[in-house]
Write a structure and sequence with these properties.
The complex is a heterotrimer. Chain A is an all-alpha fold. In chain A, 72% of the residues lie in helices and 0% in strands. Chain A has two domains: 153 residues, no CATH class; 164 residues, no CATH class. Chain A is globular and about 55 Å long. In chain C, the strands form six sheets. Chain C has a five-stranded mixed beta sheet with strand order 3-23-22-19-18. Classes of the chains: A mainly alpha, B alpha+beta, C alpha+beta.
């Protein structure tokens, strides 16, 4: 397959996954704004949300103070924001148009109709578009594309590049989201059982659409250690770091088998999986959660770099 | 005359480039005025290939280097036996019709001043005296553009050089081509080496060839006000300096390019 | 021609009767209830949009995904009519290629005084870079698009030749596909020659001109300027139908004696490049140094026999409007045959006496730029105001060599669906002739229709649409 085609497929997946992550962040933000805070007034998680989506600087430059309405607009519609839902979907559809023939018509239809809807929404008055509808819409589009890929794409190398994109983006966004809130997960912070509510923890789980799954998996009291275990080390959690990295690694291995040759990408992914499989929550807290997450984010970026030079840049010999 | 050439072109890229591809026109032409005794073009670390003789008679070859490329050295070494044919390109095999050398390029497009220069130069010469007219153009260009290094650059056009009144061999050749075109004479840009005796500064050289009925292509070097003789080695031709360039390259990447050239042409010991 | 409206040849109605090729369509449109027609029309549009076949007119604003209007009323040729056209097209394609081989070789036609040397060698499209090179099988133009118009039952004229990269063939294929899906009955009742093997023929043609050095099954790729190009859909459609890679310049690189494609499994050699990029942009080491679309070194590999480029660089010198006048002479000179298809009489404004004639008769003539295309920069005398004519006269006087003029042809009409029902609209035809080891063409081609009432300009950029083109099977 052309390296450029593989690159476009990889970025279709990353962009769609990013759109979904941002939509989930928006949901958390909207929801928290409805919950009274102990100090009076309402919770304001918007700062953290901008930080988690990596758009804080861009937003500040454009709007200054984080007014919720502006944030919503910046995160959903703004094409100046490369991570907005609109930017991500537009980019994914453009990548798809370039490699139209590498996609099934079901996948193309899903991406193209998402884009066409988006154009319609951009022409619609904002007051007629409740944020909750926009969030639902985004999640639905993302799942339709994902479903169309799973149901219709041939299991050839293109399918692997799509999945590698999904898994890497997922690993990155889970790690970033946790990192923004890492301080509330630190055991030494004296929240536990202090009577303060643990809405921060629930916020993290909710942002990963995982709060109910978490309850099923662990039950009982929510503790930082359980959350960290769930989001980092639990193979049952669909967006945990280990699930994502294992997914990427499995698809890299499929590629290597299909091509009859391995690259550094396979060994690097396997090493990451190995490290996570060996780790315990205690090890991670010993290293420092923030330090661990920063290192992990860098490792994921590094893996992305190796995948780029081994497959996507076309420079490999 | 037996001339020995050493020509080293060093490109440095910072940061390194992803890949570099070059088209080389660095082999002496085949014609009665010169005979290659020995010639080698070396490019360290490069894949060579796609070599052929083009319709204008030049030997062209291709080099490519996969990055990271921070440095490329193109090294030419050889010995050529030359004779003086008073500029006439006798015995040169080529297939491109002279009429294809009448179209202006960005570098050779004549402006009002070039038109005036060309017409003025031949005002006193009969139209039938093709060779005399070409000589007249050579002197006119030499007199109008003083040989002054450093005043013009690679992208300077003939019109700009004339307006400036200063230039180097590239500007002289471009001006010659533009002026010849004004008079309806096919003209082209030629690259090569010049054995200048003492100073080696102008050892890499360029001049013009004009198509003179009955004689064919004839070289005219306005920089020196002469026709190429046994001190000249001819490499290749083109419609202008870009087209005829001995080394034409494209590098993939964001690096800044620095260029270092060393050329020497000396009389070989027999 | 007399009166206010000239009489045009109507391809379906001959006086009171229906001409034989169209008999299968008699009553078809009139019997169709307006609701059904509207339904079908929007169905067709939805199909086009769904498959993504849209036409983005370069440089024009508005919707980049604009659909080219599709007219459901087919245009029909009898097998007899087609046989003659086909013979004429093959003849022309052979002569044009012989001409190209000649002018990049010995130039016999020029030496024989049949074509003025300056028209060939001073032509902007003449590439000195390929002089003396013989491409595989001696073919320069592998896809020849010949634009034809009809003015009577037996009168066809060639309007122009396209030897570089004629576009529009995807419309020919998709129009048929959509008609078959929407009106299967029509195809059961009429025996219509299929066109669907075009991609296979194109692939075979391209494979047949692989370089001699190539071993095994040649790898063919289509080189596109990229997804911003207005014809990108066609490039990707053809690549998909042919089962070949669609590449951009950045996907290819030169190493050693060959051109290679960047793939996820490492470099793969490419043997034949069907390029949809102009000569000037295909190699910054040979042509425009600032081109980002091309492949550095590609021309050197081509010249040394490592890859075939289709159509060959330099092929454009054969389809220039100034050379066009001489195509009948080429046919006589190279083939020793008389031309089967006629040229439109053409006046060269470069010649003072012809220019004077043109300036005196602008109101009756069509004037075109020598290098123009797409229906831009032209004057249709009978459809222009006095002011427009006067303004155009000034442009001609400024640069006479840039213009040619032709009589306004009474283009035939074909029934077409319009707002009020069915009405005649002017049409032309572009068949696509493939030249490789053999000369192949599928029956028919692309019919373009001037959907504006009275308009003679069929270009899609100027309000033109397309139709399915039928050749009745024997």
């Amino acid at each position: 397959m052309l390296s450029r085609t593989a690159d476009n497929l990889y970025w279709i997946a990353r962009s769609m996954e990013r759109a979904e992550t941002v939509a989930r962040l928006l949901e958390v933000g909207s929801r928290n704004a409805l919950i009274p805070s102990l100090s009076g007034g309402y919770r304001n998680e918007w700062d953290a949300i901008l930080q988690a989506s990596g758009t804080q600087a861009g937003f500040a430059a454009k709007y200054g103070d984080p007014v919720p309405r502006n944030i919503e607009s910046y995160l959903f519609f703004d094409l100046d924001n490369p991570s907005s839902v609109a930017s991500s979907i537009t980019r994914a559809r453009e990548n798809a148009r370039i490699v139209r023939t590498a996609l099934t018509s079901a996948v193309w239809d899903a991406l193209n109709s998402a884009y066409q809807d988006l154009l319609r929404m951009r022409r619609t008055e904002r007051s007629k578009l409740p944020m909750s509808d926009l969030i639902d819409w985004t999640m639905r589009q993302s799942m339709m594309v994902r479903g169309a890929i799973e149901d219709t794409q041939l299991r050839i190398d293109g399918y692997d590049f799509l999945n590698i994109g999904y898994h890497l983006e997922r690993a990155d966004s889970t790690a970033r989201l946790m990192d923004v809130k890492y301080f509330v997960l630190l055991p030494q912070v004296d929240y536990v059982g202090s009577g303060l509510d643990n809405y921060q923890w629930r916020t993290i789980l909710r942002a990963m659409s995982a709060h109910r799954a978490f309850s099923w998996a662990y039950g009982g009291e929510i503790t930082p250690a359980k959350i960290a275990d769930f989001l980092i080390l639990n193979r049952k959690a669909p967006r945990s770091l280990i699930t994502s990295v294992e997914g990427a690694s499995a698809h890299l291995d499929r590629l290597a088998r299909g091509y009859g040759r391995s690259t550094n990408a396979q060994s690097k992914a396997r090493a990451l999986v190995g490290e996570l499989a060996e780790a315990s929550v205690e090890d991670i807290f010993d290293e420092g959660l923030h330090e661990f997450l920063s290192r992990f984010i860098a490792e994921i970026a590094g893996l992305g770099g190796v995948i780029h030079s081994s497959y996507l840049s076309g420079d490999a010999r | 005359m037996r001339l020995e050439v050493r020509h080293r072109t060093l490109y440095r890229f910072d940061p390194a480039m992803r890949a570099v591809v070059q088209s080389l026109r660095l082999t002496p032409s085949l014609f009665d005025g010169q005979q290659t005794i020995d010639w080698a073009v070396k490019v360290e670390g490069a894949e060579r290939g796609a070599a052929f003789r083009d319709g204008a008679g030049d030997w062209v070859e291709t080099t490519s280097i996969l990055g990271p490329v921070s440095e490329i050295a193109v090294e030419v070494e050889g010995v050529v036996e030359t004779v003086d044919l008073t500029g006439v390109l006798k015995g040169h095999r080529e297939r491109v019709p002279p009429l294809a050398y009448l179209a202006p390029t960005r570098a050779t497009r004549p402006d009002a001043a070039l038109i005036e220069l060309a017409r003025g130069a031949v005002a006193e010469v009969a139209e039938t005296e093709a060779l005399e007219r070409a000589h007249a153009l050579t002197y006119a260009v030499r007199d109008a553009i003083a040989y002054t290094p450093g005043e013009t650059e690679h992208a300077t056009t003939a019109a700009e050089a004339l307006a400036l009144g200063h230039g180097v061999c590239q500007d002289h050749a471009h001006a010659m081509i533009a002026a010849a075109h004004v008079l309806g004479i096919p003209a082209r840009y030629v690259t090569g080496y010049l054995h200048a005796g003492g100073e080696a500064s102008e050892a890499s050289h360029a001049w013009a060839e004009l198509y003179v009925d009955d004689l064919g292509w004839v070289g005219f070097d306005a920089s020196n006000g002469v026709c190429p003789d046994e001190h000249y080695i001819r490499l290749g031709s083109g419609v202008d300096a870009v087209d005829a360039a001995p080394i034409r390259g494209v590098a993939k990447g964001q690096g800044a390019e620095a260029l270092d050239v060393e050329v020497s042409v000396t009389q070989a010991q027999q | 021609m007399d009166g206010d409206e000239p009489s045009y040849f109507n391809e379906m109605f001959d006086g009171d009767g229906v001409r034989a090729p169209y008999s299968g369509l008699d009553g078809w449109a009139n019997d169709m209830p307006p609701e059904l027609r509207n339904l079908k029309q929007s169905e067709a549009e939805a199909l086009f949009r769904r498959i993504g076949i849209t036409f983005a007119v370069y440089g024009e604003g508005g919707d980049p995904d604009r659909l080219i209007p599709f007219d459901m009323f087919p245009r029909v040729f009898s097998s007899g009519e087609w046989r003659k056209l086909e013979a004429g097209i093959r003849q022309r394609a052979r002569a044009l290629n012989a001409f190209l081989m000649d002018v990049y070789g010995r130039g016999e036609i020029v030496k024989a005084g049949r074509i003025p040397a300056h028209l060939v060698y001073r032509n902007e499209a003449f590439e000195k870079a390929v002089v003396g090179f013989k491409p595989p099988r001696g073919v320069y133009s592998h896809i020849v698009g010949i634009d034809l118009v009809r003015t009577g039952p037996d009168e066809f004229f060639v309007l122009e030749d396209n030897c570089r990269t004629p576009s529009g063939v995807s419309y020919m294929l998709e129009n048929r596909e959509i008609m078959m899906r929407m009106f299967p009955g029509l195809f059961q009742e009429n025996r219509i020659a299929p066109v669907e093997n075009y991609p296979a023929l194109l692939r075979r043609t391209l494979a047949s001109v692989a370089p001699e050095k190539c071993e095994g099954e040649p790898r063919v790729a289509i080189l596109t300027p990229g997804h911003f190009n207005s014809a990108y859909y066609e490039h990707s459609f053809l690549a998909d139908m042919m089962g070949v890679e669609l590449v951009e310049g950045q996907d290819l690189f030169v190493e050693g004696d060959y051109v290679w494609c960047r793939t996820t499994e490492g470099p793969k050699r490419v043997d034949v490049i069907y390029r949809r990029i102009d000569d000037a942009f295909i190699d910054p080491l040979c042509f425009r140094p600032d081109s980002m679309l091309g492949v550095p070194g590609l021309m050197n590999v081509y010249r040394s026999g490592g890859v075939t480029i289709a159509s060959a660089p330099g092929a454009g010198v054969a389809d220039d409007k100034a050379i066009y006048t001489f195509v009948p002479d080429m046919i006589r000179f190279y083939l020793g045959e008389s031309p089967i298809l006629n040229n439109v009489p053409t006046w060269q404004c470069a010649k003072p006496d012809e220019c004077a004639y043109v300036l005196d008769n602008l109101a009756e003539l069509v004037v075109k730029e020598v290098h123009g295309s797409g229906g831009y920069g032209m004057l249709v005398g009978p459809k222009s105001s006095t002011e427009q004519i006067a303004a155009f006269a000034e442009k001609i006087k400024e640069d006479p060599a840039n213009y040619i003029a032709q009589p306004t042809l009474a283009l035939s009409t074909c029934p077409s669906f319009v707002e009020e029902g069915v009405a005649p609209r002017h049409v032309d035809l572009r068949p696509y002739c493939l030249v490789g080891e053999r000369i192949e063409l599928v029956p028919g081609g692309l019919t373009r229709v001037a959907l504006r009432e009275g308009s003679l300009v069929v270009n899609s950029s100027q309000g033109g649409g397309v139709k399915d083109t039928w050749v009745m099977a024997e």
